[in-house]
Amino acid sequence: MRLGVLGPLAVWDDEGQPVRVAETKVRALLADLLAHEGRPVSADRLIHDLWGDRLPGNPAGALQAKVSQLRRVLGRERLVRQPPGYRLRLDPADDVDAARFGRLVAQARSVTDPRARAALLGEALGLWRGPAYADFADAEFARAARECLAEQRLAVLEERAEARLAAGDHLLLAGELAALVAEHPLRERLRAVQMRALYRAGHQGEALASYEDLRIRLADELGACPGPAVSALHRAMLRQDPALDPAAPVRPDHTTAPSAPATTPPAPGSGTVPAGSAGAGAPAGPGAAPASAGSADVGVRAGAADLGAPTGSADVGAPAGAADAEVPVGAADAEVPVGAAGTGVPAGDAGVRVPTGPAGVPAPAGSAGVPARVGPAAVQAEAGRDGTAAPAGRAGLPGPAGRAVPPPAGPAHREPPHGGAPQAGSPHAAPPPAGPPGAGAPYSGSPHPGVPYPASPRPEASHPATSDPEDSHPAPLPPRTAPVPTASASAPASASAPASASAPASAGPVSGPGNLPVPLTALIGREEVLARLSRLLGTQRLVTLTGPGGVGKTRLAVAAAQEVAGDGAWFVEFAGVRDATADDLADLVAATLGIRDDTPSVPPATGTGATSPVRRLTAALRDRRTLLVLDNCEHVVAAAAELVALLLRGAPHLRVLTTTQEPLALAGETVFLVEPLPTPDAVRLFTERAAARAPGFRPDPGEPGGTGAGAAADHAAVAEICRRLDGIPLALELAATRVRALGVRELAARLGDRFRVLTSGQRGAPARQQTLRAVIDWSWELLSAPERLVLSRLAAHRDGCGLDAAEAVCAGPGVARGAVLDLVTRLVEKSLVVVADGPAGPRYRLLESVAAYAAERLRETADEAATRERHLRHYLALAEHAERRLRGPRQRDWLTRLDTEACNLRAALDEAVRRAAEGHSEEAVRLATALSWWWLLRGRLTEARRALAAVLTATAGRCDPELALLHSGFVLLTGERTVTCHADAVPDPVRRARALWLNAYGRFSVGDLDGSRALNTRALIHFEAADEQWGIAAALGLRAALALVRGDLDGLARDGQRSRALFRGLGDRWGELQTVSPLAALAEIRGEYEQAAHRQHEGLQIARELSLEAEVSARLSGLGRLALLARDFDRARDLHEQARRIAVDQGYKYGEIHADMGLALGARRSGDIDAAEAHLLRIRDAHADVSSPAGYHLLHAELGFLAELRGDAARSAAHHLRSLRIAHALGEPRALALSLEGLAGTAALGGDRSGAACAALLLGAAHAARRSVGAPLPAAERGDVDRVTAAARAVLGRRGFTEAFERGTRLGPAEAERHARTTLAALADQAA
């Protein structure tokens, strides 16, 4: 089990399914225990936290009730009693999201790689679904835990930002931190990360403005100044300290072994340094000191490149302080000394000064203070053709102010986030104009490796004032077969320079930035999905997002790519191309990545012929760690699949994320279904978008201005809109634009014409997303003619269909029956048909908007009438086939099958009624007759009555007698008395008997016992004549129920047991369930409580098997009554509360009455008289329209006992005398006995001798009435009788009481009633 407090309180089972914790106080109890993290919480504390100063009448009992409810959710073993109260005891397999959050954060802090650390911290943050303990924001018991978790979350957000910054993700980070800083403007650590991100992204002014805002806020609000760390960072930015730039990785100098490396060194040639190793965040030269913890914010170049000397071959350049000088990396706020002309030196190495030449150019290796390490093949680094020093300010060399001059702007000159050298053809490489081989080789020590350093044809071009990168003409890189330049070459033989356009010398893969679009709105409701997709992208090379149009595939893909985009992610839109080949798509991808057609790729095999775009793109991507996001592939799916297959084979470090309505069907492809939003998330999305477009919109009753009935109606309308639009985000956003003009209630009412209503999209959206119709038009146009036929014919179904129905209805002109499965499968793959598991195999369903569109298309053709006729015939055959099997061993399977097809059966009946009105009535009569028994077994009584009435109306003048008889039965079952139709006109005797039995069953339900008995007897005669076993069992079961009402316990036992045996032999579980209530009552009357409980448990099992929730409620009430008799009041209350909740959910009013009565009986017997009265008055006031005479009898009897316990003799007499009149009408001896026992208690209240004698007399009469039907009062139910007996005996003495009691036993029922009225009438008149 999983429990969640990082957001609204949530519970999930072992399968990940939500577990409902319904009642507010029970949720509060769980939250309170979770906030104490497994420590015991005293009962007094819990009572105060749950009720405050408004305590219930019995606080300890009330708490115990909530504990019991919570145990039913969590399991008794998880909520244990431990003095002085309770505590949660979770199993090792259980998980609380707050604890998981802490574990992930601890794991992240042990990881040295910043990218991996950021990913783990992101996973931890992904557990948050809102503020901690969100639904208990005002609860004092959760305040400490809530504030602690909020602070932890904010700290982790800061840590994650620092990790992403260390990983080079400053471009996206700069924008993302704005909202967080605005929310927490005084957090200096957060400000520092934002300032660094802005600075590295080229927004120095914004970084300085952020510091100024912090300084002013601190001064105004706290009278304080920024701390030393952020102040030092501010000063470093003012002087444009090079140490603040993103560090450029360089190849380690292998000529000198590093001393005591801090961690495992990088792979040779990788050009990167692991986070946390020596010089993490900076190139590691020989002798570089290990980086101190927390230094990732300041990049320090400790090596040859730091002093301005390029690292060419292993023999070129001397590291600063190599072998004999450690260069420590200081903390984030360490000031970096400035050398001559602003040249930076390593942080913390204040004693080292680097000699420089003119304009701040560092002196060559070997100058004073810089030991030279020159080998035999030494070259003069960055020398021009004439051997002069390279110009300052070019290709990343320090310029006059010590700042590196950036390369030319544009997509072809973007800086890789980790300093990796782009290979030729990448978007980071400049276009290669013609020139001598070797000119313009990339300068490896530059902060922008891979950007060509232009060769200067004129000496004066060396001056920074006249040198313009746009005017230079670097030569193309040499081919694979070209010789490596020697020391006399005009460009250095850089370790980072690729030997050819397609085979870089660097062994490690190269990364790039990207062009991911920046969303303008928040991604809502996809937090968990995004986390799963991000994890999937970390392990799979090809992931395909599928789903219907408008479900948000593109938006989710971009968000996921942003999560993993540290190595570069590129977004390529395919929607604008048509009839494309793989080469066409490759050209589009190459253009997006800035790869030019004239960039050399691989040498032609024969020296002649052009290279295909796919091969050229594959070569360019071969060594790059890149994520390609290919959007909208469904209309070019074959070409996209071919391109992706070739790219993945040729580029081992490439990952591809595609969005499409149809998978690519490639080996290794992982298909990720993007489903519509669940209703709560859909409501949140719609509400936020509507509020943005309609100021003042407040649909939530919990918000200011959102109270009252109007807000509740708005909230219901919003839920309806989200349901009708299937949770499709695009449809919801389109609908939100209409709220300002229509309001949500009118909008919901107009969704029947959704394509006319949802016609106004966002101006920036593609044309295919401007309207709801355009979204589906786009998908429709991609279908073949047979696919369109099948999709439109599927719209004849409601709520999906099985394969057999699809084949029966969709096969027709243009589509062979054998082709339907393949066509439906293709529509599933194109995300136009949703497939789900059904009881008889897979079911195929259209989303509501797709179904509406397909239905329009169906109406446009001449095919509609034939399609709907095929639909009617299929479901008529299904109903008739099922009807015969609803009374046998496969009853449950066929009930489930018909339940699943309920919407289709209604649609078929609607079509049949329409045809009946045109004179074709046979199908309507047959279908309604076949469905009648399903309606009965499922309790769909009102639906049956309306449907049968519609068929009778449509067939007026041609009325079918069986149909009319069935209709009268359902009229009775829905509570209305009616005249039963003449049954003899039904020709088949068995069908006639079934219809008669149904009417007898209906008359029993409305209290017409004599009419029920007469019709049931006629039905039983027909059944026995035909030896119809099911009918005999049904008639005997009803006769047993009638015997129970009359008090004929022998008849009840005989007929009930025989009926049960027959039903069990037939395998009819519903029929067997009908015998449970009378047989359980019989056992209870006889005091056989174990037998009664056994019967009730059997009934409960059957009811749950058949999903008969109303019967579940009835059986729980029965078990609750047995718990009362055992004086287990807590269990009785729990069972009755369960029964009442189910009855309310099902609209089962009789179940509510039974449960409330059980709660009232339990409250009175446990001493809570006020609660008992509240339950009884609720029955009287809320259910007067449906209460039966037997129910009214018990109600007044209980109200009389309550009045007696309060000493109110007059009111007690009035209630008991009323119950006595009802008992007389019922003619049931046990009911008469209960009224007499109540009146005895009233008579004994006075304490006088005459009253006590009357009480003893009435008790004797009650005893005789019970004995007359063989149902003496069991010991467990003698509480009231024993209390009255003790009171009367105390006045009369033992002998006097016995004499009066014996006289009472000799009174007949009428005489006992007369005596009671004569004695107590005066009291009743007083109450009136």
TrEMBL record:
One of its GO terms (molecular function) is DNA binding. Residues 1-90 bind DNA. Residues 244-295, 349-513 are annotated as: Disordered. CDD domains: BTAD. Residues 285-295, 349-379, 389-404, 418-428, 483-513 have a biased composition (Low complexity). One of its GO terms (biological process) is regulation of DNA-templated transcription. Residues 1-90 form the OmpR/PhoB-type domain. Pfam families: AAA_16, BTAD, HTH_77. Keywords: DNA-binding, Two-component regulatory system. SMART domains: BTAD, Trans_reg_C. Belongs to the AfsR/DnrI/RedD regulatory family. This is OmpR/PhoB-type domain-containing protein. The lineage of its organism: Bacteria, Bacillati, Actinomycetota, Actinomycetes, Kitasatosporales.
